[in-house]
Amino acid sequence: MYLIFCIAPSCRRELTLARRQTRKLMTLERKLNERSAHAAVIGLGYVGLPQALAMAQAGFRTTGLDVDGGRVANLMAGRSHIEDVPAAQLRRFLRARRFRASTDFGALTAADVITICVPTPLSKTKDPDVSYIRAATAQVARHLRAGQLVILESTTYPGTTEEIIRPALEETGLVAGRDFFLAFSPERIDPANARFTVKNTPKVVGGLTPRCSRLAAAFYRQFVDEVVPVSSPQTAEMAKLLENTFRNINIALVNELAMMCDVLGVDVYEVIAAAATKPFGFMPFYPGPGLGGHCIPVDPEYLAWKLKAFDVKARFISLAAEINTAMPQVVVSKVAEALNAVGKSLKNARILVLGVAYKRDVSDLRESPALTVMTLLRARGARLAYHDPHVPRIVINGGALVSVKLTGRLLPSQDCVVLLTDHSAFDVPRLVAKSRIFVDTRNATRGLERFADRIVKLGAPSALLNGVRIEAA
Ligand SMILES: NC(=O)c1ccc[n+]([C@@H]2O[C@H](COP(=O)([O-])OP(=O)(O)OC[C@H]3O[C@@H](n4cnc5c(N)ncnc54)[C@H](O)[C@@H]3O)[C@@H](O)[C@H]2O)c1
User: Fold this and answer.
1) Which tens digit of pLDDT belongs to each residue from 376-406?
2) Angle 336-293-444 (CA atoms, 0-180°, nearest 5)?
3) Residue 155 Cα, ligand 1 centroid: separation in angstroms?
4) Ligand 1, atom 33: nearest CA belongs to which residue?
5) What's the rounded mean pLDDT across residues 195-218?
6) pLDDT confidence of residue 472
7) Averaged over 171-179, what is the pLDDT?
8) Which of 11-20, 91-100, 393-402 bottoms out in mean pLDDT, i.e. has the lowest?
9) Is the distance from CB of 121 to CB of 294 less than 8 angstroms?
10) How far is Cα 310 from Cα 306, in angstroms, rounded to an integer?
């Protein structure tokens, strides 16, 4: 009797707490399923803006928060800075009051779900720079209240959600998994990919607790066709790094294969096309001038950095980085060889670069190998110009260059034209027809055998270079 008297109040307290947690979960889950929840997205870049509009499209009142006041003002005026987000769509959601952008993080208080989509670059010493994640988390902590769901989407090393976000948010006195819900869900957006969008790209979700996973999954199911729950945030973080490391290493493999084909006098593109006819166990990747963008060259370094603390060396990652970062130099050597074949040198050669963005049909210059190729060409004395319909201006060695107009007279006046990014706006047959030498780093000239006398590719024999091949010793 005495025992029952003593235990009963604490049991009652626990019961009340459990009931409250269940109520919080049910309330949020209901709001998510009814799409009456208020969503907030921190960071309105390539990832955050399309995400925010997908949420708005599903019916959520969505607030996008960014520290860049100019970006926010443009968005509120209906101007989109992301190619995949048409201004008309943005304006429609602004008019319907389903989306708004702001620099006022006070809006987080009203949010039921908060996603964090801020940059995760590398520092100068190639270590992860998680300062943006820390800053965004500090903002969330300032406005955190019970019952909210917080989801990190930025690509980062395994452990970030539990080691950085959880403690920072729990400093408020609220407990993750009990008072608020926490998850990691990597973003897989592929800029300029019209086939795979936020909606039809499956979303991996790893919650801190089963309740966190259940809520995060319920949220994404409202605007993503397929949600893939995994057992923890760390598993989800690692899955994203596997995806991008897989790509990074396979690109390194074909880059090395291209160099092997150069030596052997075999066309690497023909080799890849033949191998790709195997209906199982093979996936084609293609060589190029080097890696670019905010993801593929950067993310594997996050994994390698994390493993250093365990005295584990990520050997594939470091070998792939060595091969991929050498590719701009390989391109420069090809240009030098091509000029040499017509009795010219790099020094003082007029060289026109086509495409400087890191990939087709985007304006993103981050980590673009074109900038390295151009820096190296200039260091060898070349006189550079460039054209990119998506990038009006770049800075090379501290000096600004402006994208030149592709006039009828420009191409024949150049000693060499180097295609580094194969934007779909380029009329390649016309460009090749007017060029004296055309160095193609993307196999954009396939099918143009009639111009074989002037085309030089990475990893393929060239008539201009007299099919020069190095004989085995
Ligand atoms: N770009 C891609 O193709 C892609 C694809 C998948 C995943 N990712 C990952 O998504 C994350 C975001 O990448 P992105 O390409 O969208 O970057 P981005 O640079 O295009 O956009 C990031 C935005 O965050 C804003 N920002 C920075 N600090 C902030 C803060 N403290 N509070 C609010 N806003 C802040 C910036 O002003 C910018 O508008 C990265 O981790 C990246 O690795 C990117």
Assistant:
1) 999 999 999 999 999 999 999 889 999 999 9
2) 50
3) 9
4) 66
5) 97
6) 57
7) 97
8) 11-20
9) yes
10) 8
Q: Given this model, what pLDDT does residue 469 score?
A: 47
pLDDT surpassing 90 at residue 353: yes
Ligand 1 pocket test: which of 41, 117, 188, 198 has the largest number of ligand atoms within 8 Å of its C-beta? 117
H or E element, residue 16: helix 2-34
Q: Name the closest-CA residue to atom 20, ligand 1.
A: 45
**How, if at all, do strands 203-207 and 227-230 pair?**
parallel
261 catalytically annotated: no
Pocket of ligand 1 (CB under 6 A): 42-48, 65-68, 71, 117-120, 132, 135-136, 154-155, 187-189, 191, 294-295
Compute how many other C-beta atoms are within 10 angstroms of the C-beta atom of residue 93: 18
Q: Are strands 383-387 and 61-65 parallel, antiparallel or unpaired?
A: unpaired
Residues of the chain by 3-state class (helix, strand, coil), percent to 5: 45, 15, 45
Closest-CA residue to 182 (of 200, 153, 161): 161
CB-hemisphere CA count at 13 Å for 281?
1
Residue 7 has pLDDT above 80, yes or no: no
Cα of 450 to ligand 1 centre, how many Å?
A: 44
Rounded Cα distance, 70 and 104, in Å = 13
